[in-house]
Amino acid sequence: MKLIILDHYSQASEWAAKYIRNRIIQFNPGPDKYFTLGLPTGSTPLGCYKKLIEYYKNGDLSFKYVKTFNMDEYVGTLGGELRLVSLPLRKSYTWSSVTSCHHHPPPLLPCNFVMASL
Q1: What stretch of H or E contains 51?
Q2: 75-87 pLDDT, tens per residue?
Q3: Looking at the domain assignment, is residue 96 inside a domain?
Q4: Is residue 48 part of a domain?
Q5: Position 101 in a domain
Q6: Which domain holds residue 54?
Q7: In a domain, 31, yes or no
Q8: For 77-118, what is each residue's pLDDT tens digit?
């Protein structure tokens, strides 16, 4: 894990977007080798997402062979809960969840995985 401290939101957004872009490019994904990206929800990562869109529109980045897992659901909760994203992190969602990940259906486990967290 890296901890990068920058002075402004725009700097953090650009740093994160460049990091994600570079990891995707270095991985060189293709039809038999997808890159997997974990994406957080909420307003915090929007600046990063805007930069990624800019890279895509400029032809600097392709998402053709990129899979995403959107981090807006938590183990042990019902999918229809209205306040799902704002649930507090509890012990039942942490270490006990790690063991349950071994029972998670593919394609989550066999992935090259980058989790964007801003």
Answers
A1: helix 46-57
A2: 555 555 544 444 4
A3: no
A4: yes
A5: no
A6: 1-74+109-118
A7: yes
A8: 555 554 444 444 444 444 444 444 444 445 554 554 455 554
